[in-house]
Design goal:
Elements lengths: L3 E4 L4 E4 L9 E4 L4 E6 L6 E3 L6 E3 L14 E6 L9 E2 L12 E6 L3 E8 L2 E8 L6 E10 L5 E14 L1 H4 L3 H7 L2 E4 L4 E4 L9 E7 L5 E5 H5 L9 H5 L12 E11 L4 E12 L20 H7 L2 H19 L2 E4 L3 H21 L14 E2 H11 L4 H13 L10 E2 L17 H16 L8 E2 L9 E2 H13 L44 E2 H24 L1 H4 L7 H19 L8 E2 L5 E2 L9 E2 H9 L8 H13 E2 L2 E2 L2 E2 L25 E2 L3 H10 L3 H11 L8 H4 L7 E4 L10 E4 L4 H13 L2 E4 L2 E4 L9 E8 L2 E9 L6 E5 L2 E3 L3 E3 L7 E8 L2
Parallel strand pairs: 38-42
Antiparallel strand pairs: 1-2, 2-9, 3-4, 4-5, 6-13, 7-8, 7-13, 9-10, 10-11, 11-12, 12-19, 13-18, 14-15, 15-16, 16-19, 17-18, 20-37, 21-22, 23-24, 25-26, 26-27, 28-31, 29-30, 32-33, 33-34, 35-36, 36-41, 37-38, 39-40, 39-42
Helix pairs in contact: 7-8, 7-20, 8-9, 8-10, 8-20, 9-10, 10-11, 10-12, 11-12, 12-14, 12-15, 15-17, 17-18, 17-20, 18-20
The protein binds alpha-D-glucopyranose (GLC) (2 copies).
The site of one alpha-D-glucopyranose has 11 residues, from helix 8.
């Protein structure tokens, strides 16, 4: 069953029913100001950091679902009305039935349109580029034959900035809330803590003059009432309350009279502003906010022409971004995910990492080191300048020993001490991110960029040194079999072989009760081979470039890395190969995991994907053997599960992985992040049909028809789909913020469609399904537009390239002479 449909032309998903199985959300903002918005206008906003600068309050885990949002109420003020007098045009929070309802989630905006009793309303929510504010533009139309007298109520519930503190420290917080009300409530300033150390405040403004306002929550709602039944809306009368402590809100009442057929716009803006510290107050010795800088901004965006214009700028921005890579294939799911939604999701994960979604509270996690490095693989070609900045930020949190803080806070860009370090895969991902950036941009100067360790002044070293230390970090931490020690965990955060945690509530990620000198990871070994091969390739390139680079770095030669690759490969074959698949790990007792010897957890997906992506088993038939095992033991119609058999009970020596009931999350769930590794591996052995088959199994658009089972949004990937051991097999969770977005994007665009950047130019080597006759793609790459047309000549993946009409050898199109802007590529595929 579906709850809506894709409008690909407008790059929107249109939801036709408000009570979707879960709130289906979108994100507003792409620079510093962000918001989450659901299909019923739920959600919250923040500036840069979802924990430390949260503007509005949201209640996770509430009943009913999804409470707190950008709520507007409409009230019929005519005295002789039958039935409910007021309703929510976004359905929530009143849930009064609507005659029509439609929510359009688009690229950086959401439009909720509905109709009730002849009154149509459409609210467009977005964040203009370059601003730290959001606009709610409400358009009302009277379809009745008579004049309508309406009241519009707008509401926000202010959060007292630190979302954690807001939810815990009531003894203080009930006393500190402060607002300033200007122009009869037309602008409501939320200034809690501004009197002391904050130099920032929030504001909520309306384009119309008001007939009333409230800033004290209970005055507006009435005692013991919820957002579904506010007393002020019911009565049609505000009390002009001014909050002193308790729960400051912004609520405004605008009276609107509409003749038959008449239309009217009302604009609300919610924003964040910082003042220079020494100019916080006006007059200087007062406690009143200095509004000189913010007032012109407010005035500007309360103008409907201006609003329309900045909305068009936003649309154009996304058009330009998404046009950097477009495809037209025989499959609509592939087209819309690559051209629209998967691309969009990679940009959202770039902005959010794993911080704020409807499954991540925005409090618990900062920017993940390994997560952000992997996210970059998906978005680097969209915003290379910002990828550069992200790489330097991440590298600056690296520790002098080459290790990495597992997370950093976006506001301070400092490593997060609560979680700390010792996830031994972390530093290797930095190598993959930097290499992806170099292949995309050719900007070698980044390697020379001075970057500190642990953000300490005077510890700056060229970025290249950071990469070398990343590799060295693994080499300094080899275990009894010569495999890398796992530390707290590797990519699988829940494989905690050194935790041995038996106290409820202890964090598996930070508990370490073992010395950590025994447990080893075959996955990190595979990742090491991949990263060290990349370092060999990169060093070779630098050697070719010659003296200019050599004098800047104490460069380790490519030979060094090649040697280390060979050594690690031979260890993997000796201790990491189980006969029919790659093993997973060795535990603290030195016992193998992910082997036929194990009754539970005898085969895992991660080492199959990672080792083959690193090239292991391609020269013999072992890659194919391992992938056949994946197909036999791990594949399901809903995707490939993480391991089998699932752990049936908690194992002290395995940690969190066995804490989950069978079939969920890391315990044999379909952890979607890993599925594209298998797709890529399949393409590497030339099996396009299999790769594409796996691709479709978790493709959200291809799962749209089973939305009642899948439950999450059909336009974005979820982190996890319940595996075959779960009673709810096929049900998805944790949508939006997942490495699944970047990796699927890489799998489909670079490996199945086969269009990938290299140091020397764009490579085109598709491994597509055998029944695809052709496809077209266009890609911007280093300032050149490549128009690629692929035609199947026969079975197989052999490639013959014609570039601007001339046949060339191989699969890489060398960078053309300067000045050329467009290149036509014809690809003849198969024999
Ligand atoms: C979560 C984490 C990611 C980890 C994965 C597997 O998605 O964000 O870092 O690799 O879980 O445990
Ligand atoms: C939990 C989750 C895992 C995630 C980790 C992050 O362990 O199962 O997916 O990576 O939390 O801290």
């Amino acid at each position: 069953m579906r709850y809506g449909y894709f409008d690909d032309k407008n790059r929107e998903y249109v939801i036709e029913q408000p009570d979707t199985p879960l709130p289906w959300i979108n994100y507003l903002g792409s620079e510093e100001y962000f918001g989450l918005i659901s299909n019923t206008a739920g959600g919250y906003s923040f500036y840069k950091d979802a924990r430390l600068r949260r503007l509005t309050r949201y209640r996770y885990n509430n009943a009913p679902l999804d409470m707190g949002g950008r709520y507007i109420y409409l009230r019929d003020d005519s005295p002789h009305l039958i039935g409910p007098k007021f309703w929510s045009p976004s359905w929530q929070p009143t849930r009064v039935p609507l005659d029509e309802y439609e929510c359009r989630h688009g690229m950086g905006y959401t439009i909720i349109r509905s109709k009730r009793n002849g009154i149509e309303s459409s609210t467009r929510y977005f964040v203009p580029l370059g601003e730290s504010l959001e606009i709610w533009e409400l358009t009302l139309t009277n379809h009745r034959d008579e004049t309508a007298d309406l009241s519009v109520f707008s509401t926000v519930e202010f959060n007292l900035w630190d979302a954690m503190d807001d939810a815990t420290n009531f003894q203080r917080n009930y006393s500190i809330g402060e607002v300033e009300v200007v122009n009869g409530g037309q602008v409501i300033y939320h200034k809690t803590e501004y009197r002391e150390r904050r130099d920032h405040f929030a504001y909520f403004a309306s384009s119309e003059s008001l007939s009333g306002f409230d800033t004290q929550r209970e005055a507006f709602l009435g005692l013991y009432r919820g957002w579904d039944l506010p007393a002020a809306v019911e009565a049609g009368l505000m009390s002009n309350s001014v909050a002193h402590g308790w729960q400051p809100i912004g609520a405004q009442q605008v009276k609107v009279q509409l003749k038959p057929g008449e239309q009217k716009k009302v604009i609300f803006i919610l924003g964040y502003h910082e003042n220079p510290k020494e100019e916080k107050f006006d007059p200087l010795n007062s406690q009143i906010i200095n509004k000189r800088y913010v007032e012109p901004i407010i005035t500007r965006y309360l103008d409907e022409n201006e609003v329309e214009q900045v909305f068009q700028v936003l649309r154009k921005h996304w058009d330009e971004l998404l046009n950097k890579f477009t495809v037209s294939t025989p499959d609509e799911h592939t087209n819309r995910m690559v051209n629209i939604w998967n691309a969009y999701q990679t940009m959202i994960t770039f902005n959010m990492s794993r911080s704020a979604s409807y499954f991540e509270s925005g409090i618990g996690r900062g920017m993940g080191f390994r997560d952000s490095n992997q996210d970059l693989l998906g978005f680097v070609h969209f915003v290379p300048e910002r990828a550069r900045e992200r790489i330097l930020d991440l590298a600056a949190t690296q520790l002098p020993n080459g290790g990495a803080y597992h997370q950093y806070q976006p506001l301070t860009k400092r490593g997060n001490n609560d979680v700390g370090s010792n996830f031994n895969d972390d530093p290797l991902w930095l190598v993959l991110a930097v290499v992806a950036y170099l292949k995309e941009t050719g900007d070698w100067s980044i390697l020379n960029e001075p970057v500190p360790y642990d953000n300490q002044a005077d510890s700056e070293m060229p970025l290249l040194e950071h990469l070398q230390r990343s590799i060295q970090y693994t080499l300094d931490r080899l275990g009894p079999h010569g495999l890398p020690l796992i530390g707290r965990a590797d990519w699988n955060d829940c494989l905690n072989l050194n935790a041995f945690s038996d106290s409820p509530g202890q964090s598996f990620q930070t508990t370490t009760n073992k010395e950590g000198k025994v447990a080893e990871s075959v996955f990190i070994a595979g990742l090491f081979v991949l990263a060290a091969k990349e370092m060999a390739g990169l060093s070779k390139k630098l050697e070719e470039k010659g003296e200019k680079f050599k004098k800047n770095f104490s460069l380790l030669c490519s030979h060094f890395y090649q040697e280390k690759v060979a050594e690690m490969e031979s260890v993997i074959w000796q201790h990491g190969w189980d006969g029919e698949w790659f093993r997973r790990a060795y535990d603290d007792f030195g016992h193998v995991l992910g082997s036929k010897e194990n009754e539970e957890g005898s085969i895992f997906i991660e080492p199959q994907g990672m080792c083959i992506m690193a090239g292991l088993g391609l020269e013999n038939d072992r890659a194919a053997i391992a992938l056949d095992s994946v197909n036999e033991y791990l594949a399901t119609p809903h995707g490939i599960v993480l391991q089998q058999p699932a752990f049936s009970k908690y194992y002290l020596h395995l940690g969190e992985i066995s804490s989950y009931p069978p079939g969920y999350k890391e315990n044999a769930g379909i952890f979607c992040h890993t599925n594209p590794w298998i797709m890529i591996a399949e393409t590497m052995i030339g099996r396009g049909d299999k790769a594409y088959d796996y691709y479709l199994r978790i493709n959200p658009s291809a799962r749209e028809e089973i939305s009642e089972l899948h439950k999450c949004e059909p336009y974005v990937y979820a982190q996890m789909i319940a595996g075959k051991d779960a009673p709810t097999h096929g049900e998805a969770k944790n949508s939006w913020l997942t490495g699944t977005a970047a990796w699927n994007y890489v799998a489909i665009t670079q490996w199945i469609l086969g269009i990938r950047p290299t140091y020397n130019g764009l490579e085109v080597a598709p491994v597509i399904p055998s029944d695809w006759d052709d496809f077209e793609a266009a890609r911007s790459y280093r300032g050149i537009r490549y128009e690629i047309s692929v035609k199947r000549k026969g079975p197989g993946n052999a490639v013959q390239l014609e570039v601007d009409g001339n046949s060339i050898d191989g699969t890489v199109i060398s960078l053309p002479d300067e000045g050329l802007e467009k290149v036509q590529v014809t690809v003849l595929l198969g024999q």
